[in-house]
Q: What sequence folds into this?
């Protein structure tokens, strides 16, 4: 398509564009004309009313009829144009038809000034010229897009009148004729200018629309390319993660076996290397974010000293192979726990130390870690307990060094000091560039001091926040209990022999019975012959994949009427949307490969039935000595409370980083205390913080506060010596414990048995309590305030309809501190209210005090009672 060069700096033109501009100008004239046609008929009617007694009435009436007919014909033409809706190539014929209509109207108005002019000297003599000038002025706006049409209208309208006055002998008439001619000239020039401006505006709009269309097409092409890249990354992720799962899984299994010290050290180094490779894979999956200039920085509490030692252990083998010394010097003032991004620090350290080893042939690499003040950047001599500091890591080598001219280039992407080094040592030249970017995004910097042939020193400076180290140091000195064993049957669907062996060994180590299927079809056959507590399903398998197998399993369950078996997806995909795809396919949860042993334990325990978990409902710290138990309980209460307060503050400030860190820390503490309900809630809260799901976080934080109080109470009670309490209760008492939490019932039973009670029964719901009380009314009912179904207040109210306070003592137990709720409990008939958060001794004292108020006949009363109806 030929394109004309821009004219006077205007928008570029082409034949197609000019045709579109012409079509829009004609369409503009058709759209603006209908109103002027109506006004023209109105004006002609007014002129007839003014002149019909002055001029020949028959001629004036004939003129009016002609004007009405002309304008009606033009209006009909406009209606036909609207009905047809002509295209760009049909513009010309409609343009000429419109111009013929305008010419006819102009001739009609011009005949008024020639044939129907009032006699000279008449008071209405100026009516005609003024009306004609007004008609021409209005046409200047309605015909702004067609200046030729305006000429065809304005000239026939005004020129006859102008010449009529110029030919008159009176000087004043000659002047009026000259003014009319001047107006015609000005109007025609402006009409031409208006059309040019309008055409340029339309041309510019079309150009912008064309550019917008091109941008949209380019955007769609970019999105398609991005989708192709994402698909490639997903496929690559799956292909790499599948063998990685075998490597890391086997390493974990071997670490559980009996190994020599050297073997364990080698295997731990192998495992950490695999984890570093997994971190690199995750960086590849974040390529789109990297290209957009943003990284996901994950701030958490970590030990910088341990992180740096792990890196040197990882790279120590490379140094030993080259005969180099790899030494690390960590100052005593370096705090044990700081807040920052441990993964990015590890990545930077691997790049700097790895480069130093690669470019050094003789001598060694020396790594130092110091802590400096944030204010004056002076090295600290004492370990700080709080506040912000600057961690300074220096990596000095005795290698080839870097010339002064090349030092500014080493931090550029794909660059090395010189071409010779690139050919000799290899590498992409990305390590230092990425390290500098990471350091700057963490608020720090990397500097270089070097000389050719002498060596180089890279110094990393990062701001960090010091975190209290009491809990971590205490935990390292305590022999904390291992995770409880599980019970149940699991169907593992995995086509990879290595991955199947890894997962099955882990599951069996948990205490589960594991059945293996190699593909989806075999899994369907296994499910037809047996019931399983849980199904672990690999998504990518030959033949029938996990998604199709899940769909068929769900269809069979609906058809037969079976309860849905929990089904967890095991997939090497870790892209955004993979979890949603698995859930949409009918799976209940998602675990990405490669997974660690604790990750598998947590998700399996989450979906197993409650009665399949052995020992998870009670706190057992028997392996810890009595002095350490009390110490652990105190530390746990302190640290868990600190993190709960951090959760509340982060929720108020919508600080997702603090919320995630506190949830992660509290999750780990909950595992140590075997508070698995709190662990599961913190896992969900941590995920909510990552996804910035503030509605879910708002719901979980209050639950976490309550669970934290419960876990503190359990840890405190289990840390007490069973012989420490002197409170005793009558052994003849018949007590019914009603609580939907098995752990609470267990602890309550043990406390009562230690206090001398033997007649203890348990109910797990308010409905069950009504039945048991109806069968055999106890002396005392220990009733949980919050339960699923019928809560404590409703249960108490139902019991009081049949039993008075003298017949049945109801002690309502709850951690709710709301006075209104407690008042409602007393109004429902509770004999007393005891808070769950108090110690076991305080609970026994409260019970003893209340039981002392009972009469002897009440303790020896008959057991038979009418049964209650709970229908």
A:
């Amino acid at each position: 398509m030929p394109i004309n060069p821009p004219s006077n700096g205007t928008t570029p033109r082409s034949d197609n564009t000019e045709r579109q501009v012409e079509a829009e100008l004609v369409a503009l004239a058709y759209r603006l004309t209908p109103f002027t046609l109506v006004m023209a008929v109105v004006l002609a009617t007014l002129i007839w009313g003014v002149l019909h007694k002055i001029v020949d009435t028959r001629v004036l009436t004939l003129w009016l009829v002609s004007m009405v007919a002309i304008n009606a014909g033009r209006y009909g033409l406009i209606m036909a144009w609207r009905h047809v809706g002509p295209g760009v190539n049909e513009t010309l014929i409609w343009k000429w038809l419109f111009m013929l209509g305008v010419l006819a109207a102009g001739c009609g108005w011009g005949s008024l000034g020639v044939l129907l002019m009032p006699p000279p000297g008449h008071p209405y003599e100026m009516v005609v010229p003024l009306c004609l000038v007004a008609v021409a002025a209005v046409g200047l706006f309605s015909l702004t897009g067609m200046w030729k049409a305006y000429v065809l209208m304005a000239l026939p309208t005004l020129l006859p009148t102008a010449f009529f006055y110029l030919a008159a002998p009176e000087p004043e008439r000659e002047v009026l004729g000259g003014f009319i001619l001047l107006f015609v000239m000005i109007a025609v020039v402006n009409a031409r200018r208006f059309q040019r401006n309008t055409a340029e505006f339309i041309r510019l709009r079309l150009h912008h629309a064309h550019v917008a269309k091109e941008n949209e097409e380019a955007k769609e092409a970019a999105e398609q390319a991005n989708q192709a890249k994402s698909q490639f990354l997903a496929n690559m992720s799956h292909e790499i993660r599948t063998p990685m799962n075998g490597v890391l899984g086997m390493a974990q299994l071997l670490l559980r076996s009996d190994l020599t010290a050297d073997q364990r050290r080698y295997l731990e180094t192998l495992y950490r290397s695999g984890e570093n490779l997994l971190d690199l894979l995750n960086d590849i999956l974040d390529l789109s974010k990297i290209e957009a200039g943003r990284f996901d920085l994950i701030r958490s509490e970590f030990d910088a000293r341990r992180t740096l030692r792990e890196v040197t252990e990882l790279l120590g083998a490379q140094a030993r192979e080259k005969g180099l010394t790899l030494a690390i010097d960590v100052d005593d003032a370096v705090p044990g726990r700081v807040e920052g991004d441990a993964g990015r620090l590890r990545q930077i350290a691997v790049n700097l130390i790895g480069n130093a080893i690669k470019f050094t042939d003789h001598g060694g690499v020396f790594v130092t870690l110091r802590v400096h003040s944030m204010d004056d950047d002076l090295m600290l001599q004492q370990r700080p307990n709080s506040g912000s500091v600057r961690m300074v890591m220096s990596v000095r080598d005795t290698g080839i060094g870097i010339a002064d001219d090349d030092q500014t280039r080493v931090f550029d992407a794909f660059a090395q000091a010189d071409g010779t080094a690139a050919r000799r040592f290899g590498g992409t030249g990305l390590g230092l560039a990425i390290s500098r970017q990471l350091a700057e995004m963490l608020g720090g910097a990397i500097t270089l001091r070097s000389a050719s042939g002498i060596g180089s020193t890279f110094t990393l400076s990062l701001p960090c926040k010091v975190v209290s180290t009491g809990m971590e140091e205490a935990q390292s000195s305590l022999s904390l209990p291992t995770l409880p064993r599980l019970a149940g049957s699991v169907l593992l669907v995995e086509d990879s022999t290595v991955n199947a062996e890894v997962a099955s060994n882990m599951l069996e180590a948990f205490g589960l019975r594991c059945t293996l299927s190699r593909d989806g079809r075999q899994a369907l056959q296994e499910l037809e012959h047996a019931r399983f507590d849980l199904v672990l399903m690999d998504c990518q398998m030959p033949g029938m994949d996990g998604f199709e197998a899940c769909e068929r399993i769900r269809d069979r369950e609906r058809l037969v009427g079976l309860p849905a078996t929990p089904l967890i997806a095991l997939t090497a995909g870790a892209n955004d949307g993979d979890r949603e795809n698995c859930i949409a396919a009918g799976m209940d949860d998602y675990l990405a490969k490669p997974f660690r042993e604790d990750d598998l334990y947590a998700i399996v325990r989450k979906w197993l039935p409650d009665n399949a978990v052995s020992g998870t409902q009670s706190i057992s710290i028997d392996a810890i000595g009595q002095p350490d138990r009390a110490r652990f309980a105190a530390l746990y209460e302190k640290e868990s409370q600190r993190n709960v307060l951090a959760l509340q503050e982060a929720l108020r400030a919508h600080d997702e980083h603090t919320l995630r860190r506190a949830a992660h820390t509290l999750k780990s503490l909950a595992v140590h205390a075997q508070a698995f309900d709190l662990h599961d809630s913190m896992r969900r809260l941590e995920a909510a913080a990552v996804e910035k799901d503030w509605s879910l976080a708002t719901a979980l934080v209050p639950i976490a506060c309550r669970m934290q109080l419960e876990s503190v109470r359990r840890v405190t009670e289990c840390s007490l010596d069973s012989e420490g309490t002197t409170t005793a209760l009558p052994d003849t008492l018949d007590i019914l414990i009603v609580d939907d939490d098995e752990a609470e019932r267990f602890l309550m039973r043990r406390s009562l048995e230690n206090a001398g009670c033997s007649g203890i029964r348990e109910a797990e719901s308010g409905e069950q309590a009504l039945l048991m009380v109806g069968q055999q009314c106890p002396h005392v009912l220990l009733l949980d305030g919050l339960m699923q179904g019928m809560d404590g207040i409703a249960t108490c109210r139902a019991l009081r309809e049949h039993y008075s306070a003298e017949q049945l003592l109801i002690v309502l137990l709850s951690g709710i501190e709301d006075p209104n709720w407690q008042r409602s409990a007393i109004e429902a008939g509770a004999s007393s209210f005891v808070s769950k958060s108090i110690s076991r001794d305080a609970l026994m004292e409260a019970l003893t005090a209340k039981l002392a108020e009972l009469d002897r006949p009440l303790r020896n009363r008959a057991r038979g009672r009418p049964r209650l109806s709970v229908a």
